[in-house]
DNA sequence: TTTTCCCGCCATGCC
DNA sequence: GGCATGGCGGGAAAA
């Protein structure tokens, strides 16, 4: 289609539907997996229900019932935020218990890890802290958001923080939450506004993205924000507010202080005075992914200094399309926010 | 038609 | 080389 796309875009990917009739385009590994899965399916037909990690048949499960929010609710039923002490979580077992793929567990645990509810201990194993470290962490996030001048960035008065190279879901989750924390109480934020701050369009040392590529990048980030928002709603950090008459898109509001859902009711949660919080002093604001070099990057004092130095990109012109949309979004949200604050 | 977001391919990096 | 992790976008359900 567009032959000029290959300059900075990610390598061409092939949807399964695209490749199943053309084995030439499939990597050997993918091909092997495909064949394996077919073989396993046939095997399942013979030995049905011997599957170690059963997934519900697609036809019987409603899309809504499989949402990340509900999945996270169920995850939090297993591992409550208000539990005592720490628990070791085996990701594959948890996935099996919830009847989902392990991949979905990563979506949830990465976001929860970014909130310091869990720490990657070793392969397949996370240490679950629940909400015991959440409130101090939120305070820190707020401070970090102020340092990054996110409030100004939201209004186009300050440069955006640079995009992370790794753990982008976790960092996006943190920055998304920062937006709520740096704004006055009850500020309504929609995903368009958030993405505007969260996408780094500076493209250091690279050619500028075409409007088409910007659109795709934007859509991709919005997808991720939906995922993040759903987990945050489940945790009780934000809530969806209906009624954006112009954009017909949801807006979100911070629901803090951190709440815990407990059997259909929402209760305020005061973190227990527990020795666990002492752990924060050992490695404040720094979440490592086990031994991996990949880590959530924003919080060390050093990285912050580096971050500050890197924040030099001006607010580049976006595609007119998004500017128009964002202008309307701003007007609408300002109106709503003013109404809320009165 | 547009929005929402599940699903799973496959790149990356560690062991 | 195999495996765990996680980025990313296709595409289908829901609105």
UniProtKB/TrEMBL annotation:
SUPFAM superfamilies: Winged helix' DNA-binding domain. Its main location: nucleus. It holds the Pfam family WHD_E2F_TDP. Gene3D superfamilies: Winged helix-like DNA-binding domain superfamily/Winged helix DNA-binding domain. Keywords: DNA-binding, Nucleus, Transcription, Transcription regulation. InterPro entries: E2F, E2F_WHTH_DNA-bd_dom, WH-like_DNA-bd_sf, WH_DNA-bd_sf. Residues 63-130, 164-256 form the E2F/DP family winged-helix DNA-binding domain. It is found in: Nucleus. The keyword Electron transport does not apply. Belongs to the E2F/DP family. This is E2F/DP family winged-helix DNA-binding domain-containing protein. It comes from Chilo suppressalis (Asiatic rice borer moth). The lineage of its organism: Eukaryota, Metazoa, Ecdysozoa, Arthropoda, Hexapoda.
């Amino acid at each position: 289609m567009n032959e000029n796309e290959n300059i900075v875009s990610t390598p061409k990917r092939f949807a399964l539907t695209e490749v199943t009739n053309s084995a030439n385009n499939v990597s050997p590994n993918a091909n092997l997996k495909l064949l394996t899965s077919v073989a396993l399916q046939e095997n399942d037909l013979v030995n049905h229900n011997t599957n170690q990690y059963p997934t519900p048949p697609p036809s019987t499960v409603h899309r809504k019932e499989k949402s990340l929010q509900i999945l996270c609710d169920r995850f939090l039923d297993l591992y409550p935020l208000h539990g005592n002490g720490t628990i070791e979580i085996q990701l594959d077992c948890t996935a099996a218990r919830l009847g989902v793929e392990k991949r979905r567990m990563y979506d949830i645990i990465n976001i929860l890890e970014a909130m310091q509810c869990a720490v990657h201990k070793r392969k397949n194993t996370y240490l679950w802290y629940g909400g015991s470290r959440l409130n101090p962490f939120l305070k820190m996030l707020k401070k970090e958001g102020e340092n990054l001048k996110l409030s100004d960035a939201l209004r186009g008065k300050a440069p955006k923080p640079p995009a992370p190279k790794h753990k982008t879901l976790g960092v996006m989750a943190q920055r998304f939450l920062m937006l709520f924390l740096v704004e006055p109480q009850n500020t309504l934020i929609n995903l368009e506004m958030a993405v505007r701050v969260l996408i780094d369009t500076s493209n250091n040392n690279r050619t500028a993205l075409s409007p088409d590529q910007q659109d795709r990048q934007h859509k991709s980030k919005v997808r991720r924000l939906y995922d993040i928002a759903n987990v945050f709603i489940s945790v009780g950090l934000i809530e969806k507010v209906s009624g954006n008459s112009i954009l017909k898109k949801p807006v979100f509001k911070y629901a803090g202080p951190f709440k815990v859902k407990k059997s259909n009711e929402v209760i305020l949660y005061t973190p227990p005075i527990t020795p666990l919080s002492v752990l924060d002093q050992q490695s404040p604001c720094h979440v490592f992914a086990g031994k991996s070099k990949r880590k959530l990057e924003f919080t060390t004092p050093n990285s912050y200094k580096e971050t500050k130095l890197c924040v030099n990109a001006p607010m580049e012109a976006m595609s007119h399309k998004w500017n128009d949309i964002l202008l309307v979004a701003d007007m609408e949200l300002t109106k709503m926010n003013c109404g809320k604050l009165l």
